[in-house]
Write a structure and sequence with these properties.
Oligomer: single chain
Number of strands: 10
Order of helices and strands: HHHHHHHEEHEEHEEHEEEE
CATH architecture of the largest domain: Up-down Bundle
Distance between the termini: 55 Å
Radius of gyration: 25 Å
Helix content: 40-55%
Number of helices: 10
Largest sheet: 5 strands, mixed
Strand order of the largest sheet: 2-1-10-5-6
Number of domains: 2
Shape: elongated
Length: 366
């Protein structure tokens, strides 16, 4: 059972690690790399899978720790070099696993009792945890193979397990225990995946977000009040500045009078939820062309928000020139709600929600 749980955890942890890297490098592209803007659903899928695989790991990890707990106190504590490596790897593996899952759940619930910046810490602890996991797998691979699959008895000489009969009486059998853990993991999957899978919104019983609940039928993470832009965003003197070789500015009325385009795009939060919406606004590419911004240039989109790690975002050419990338002024046919970024916000395909800058007032060539 410990071997099977280890295999399942290896799958869920590996999935969470790879999809976490996707999210990290989308937000922080290495070097001159520019992430593609298509397919439009890719980030939605990757980040939803990241959060769901993390949540499914919780019952698996608890069951794994319960199963192996007696072995943690076995004597002698070290029986050789390989065993020593395996024992040493347990410390960062268990500590890192608990830390990642606990802080990850706190993040999707938007509860931050800790003082460190979540995304940076989560990223680096992930590397420590996955490194310890690889060392642990290397030390245990022979034992796992000996305990799993057909013909286990013929491989008994390769394992360190103590052969025991199934418990008698009213105790839960190994098969029953495995089914219970699998059922728990299945319930977590079914009741959380709907926050990013279209059409399953009614099943999100354990998810912290329902995709269609919020102003204009769309969730909000950061409100205008929290961002401190309530007054300045409503200022009738608002203007959108586009800075390039031929800079220009648009008043609110002039922005609304531009040739408008309507697109259907999902907005996906790093916390795992995603929702489709209909956006109307001006193509970012059209504004850049008018300002004389070269097609190969990236631009920085700036918010009216005065502080915060995501008050600006850099839009690289694949997104800046995508015909679906808009400076949006309407959502679902109505003027943007203040909490959704009124008077204007960025919306682009295949892009994390934290980079879909709200309350946009300036676009600058970089």
């Amino acid at each position: 059972m410990a071997s099977l749980l280890g295999i399942w955890l290896g799958i869920t942890f590996g999935t969470a690690f790879v999809t976490g890297l996707v999210s990290h490098f989308m937000q922080h592209p290495p070097g001159g790399f520019s992430w593609p803007s298509r397919p439009v659903w890719f980030y939605r899928f990757a980040q939803g899978l990241h959060v769901t695989s993390g949540l499914v790991s919780v019952p698996l990890l608890l069951a794994k720790l319960w199963t192996v707990y007696p072995r943690l106190w076995e004597w002698p504590p070290v029986r050789g070099v390989a065993h020593a490596a395996e024992r040493i790897s347990i410390i960062p593996l268990i500590a890192g696993s608990i830390f990642q899952l606990a802080t990850g759940i706190a993040n999707i619930a938007q509860w931050y009792p800790f003082r460190f910046f979540f995304t940076v810490t989560h990223y680096w602890v992930a590397w420590i945890t996955i490194g310890a996991l690889l060392v642990h797998i290397a030390a245990k691979i022979t034992i796992v193979r000996a305990n799993v699959g057909q013909g286990r008895a013929a491989r008994a000489h390769l394992t360190d397990r103590i052969s025991q009969p199934e418990p008698a009486g009213d105790g839960l059998s190994r098969r029953g225990f495995g089914l219970a853990v699998g059922a728990a993991a299945g319930v977590v999957t079914v009741t959380t995946a709907g926050q990013f899978v279209p059409g399953l919104g009614d099943t999100v019983l354990l998810a912290p977000r329902t995709p269609d609940v919020g102003p204009q039928g769309l969730p909000v993470n950061r409100t205008a009040l929290a961002a401190g832009v309530v007054v300045i965003a409503r200022d009738r003197g608002y203007q959108l500045d586009v800075v390039g070789p031929r800079p220009f500015s648009l008043s609110l009325d002039e922005l609304y009078a531009q040739s408008l385009v309507t697109v259907r795009l999902p907005i996906t939060c790093v916390e795992g939820w995603a929702a489709d919406a209909t956006w109307t606004g001006v193509r970012l590419a059209d504004l850049l062309d008018r300002a004389g911004v070269p097609a190969h240039a990236a631009v920085r989109v700036e918010s009216l928000e005065r502080r915060g790690g995501y008050r600006t975002s850099v839009v690289h050419p694949p997104h800046a020139r995508d015909p679906k990338t808009l400076v949006a002024t309407r959502l679902g046919g109505a003027v943007l709600a203040l909490d959704h970024g009124y008077p204007a916000r960025l919306i682009a395909p295949n892009r994390p929600g934290v980079l879909q800058t709200k309350w946009v007032h300036r676009v600058v060539m970089v």
